[in-house]
Amino acid sequence: MDFNWSSDYPEGVLSFLDTDLYKLTMQNAVFQHYPDVHVTYAFTNRTPEKKFSRKAFTWLCEQIYKLGHISLKDEELRFLKSHCTYLTDAYLGFLSEFRLSPREQLKPIFNPIGDDTGADDVIGDIHIEISGKWVDTILYEIPLLALTSEAYFKFMDTDWTYDGQEEKAFQKGLRILEAGCTLSEFGTRRRRDYHTQALVFRGLVNASKKAAEQGLSGKLTGTSNVHLAMRFNLAPIGTVAHEWFMGIAAITNDYENANEEALRRWVACFGEGVLGIALTDTFGTPAFLKSFSKPVRHLPGTTGATTDATKPPRSYAQIFTGVRQDSGDPAGFVKLMHEFYDSQGIKDKKTIVFSDSLDIEKCIEYKRVSDEQGFQSSFGVGTYLTNDFTQLSTGKKSVPLNIVIKLNSAVGNPAVKISDNIGKNTGDSAKVAEVKKLLGYVEKEWEGGDETKRWGTGESATNT
Questions:
Q1: 447 pLDDT more than 60
Q2: What is the CATH number of domain 165-403+419-455?
Q3: Which of 397, 400, 362, 401 has the alpha carbon at shortest distance from 379?
Q4: In the chain, ranges of CATH 3.20.140.10 domains
């Protein structure tokens, strides 16, 4: 498939599908279950030493407002219908007419440091406020993060080139595949720009072809970026993010049952065994596993609502293909999941998808740990692939931004995340403390003693 742009290095967001798949799957579920819920989002720069010029901010605003002119093209709709058959017909009909409204739903803010002369070279911090219906605003996160990163490296850190990016990705991909790993590219949110991500993914595709020629067991499954998946005629990769669980918990204000309700409504939207990688760490993995072990409760009128009364109901842990590890200690997580599945009498080989700050060495090590415990492993590698540059003048690493956009409230209630890594907790601090107390959350070190990686509840995770 050919894509023609006026520049060799096109800037900004190029397509409605230039986003990660899990935003579309979650929008589908929100469209079905919560079409009228109002939400807000919070932008956080975890690298606050990285400032922006007013010129960079102005460019960012221009790109943000351009999002309102992008819509789903016919060829893109055909791609979704053929490659993402789990998306419902009603949702695809909605999506074909959908438009973002950034001038009404977004408020970009520039906070200058020191005296503000109004000049382009004034330095400051940026902030973005997002507010509107959940179904309308859910798609902003990925393009806003990608555009913010692009603005920084277009105007602030410019001491780099694209030279060697495709070959570097080829070599990284080949090493990961030589180790027998199953690899997906997850780098849209913190990429240097779209062109970088396209170069990187082309390198990975070539590495995959080379691996196949050599008879290697490793496999490239695809990319989370739906537009790149369409360009390379591959299925996009992704399921769900913390936002789904955070939103439902805020809507219901029932944190003891929020995980189960999120799983229940996910299955109601897509069916059993579809998009079946569960994310465990929104409110701590041990709390999640209590819900994961419960029998599936179908919503009336949905697929599977009528079950065979002669057979015991299956649990969520049984019908989901596996889980995603996104915070905390991976080795401890693998051990925990092994103990959990054993306690449930589940003998099927399950998958663990690793997606937390991966590089080659981590992929290889986590595969070894997973193999030892009898899991199928998969690896979603992001920033290490799509924002790995060195400064031309010094040879030192050009450090990526660490920026996030998280759901901040739903129906006026604060939305929070209580991660397996204490440093990744997000949201209103009072609400975080309230939920931790409610869930019996206590800080306990993972095996290995890394004090930055903690989880815990008052009970054993297998005592469900």
A1: no
A2: 3.20.140.10
A3: 362
A4: 165-403+419-455
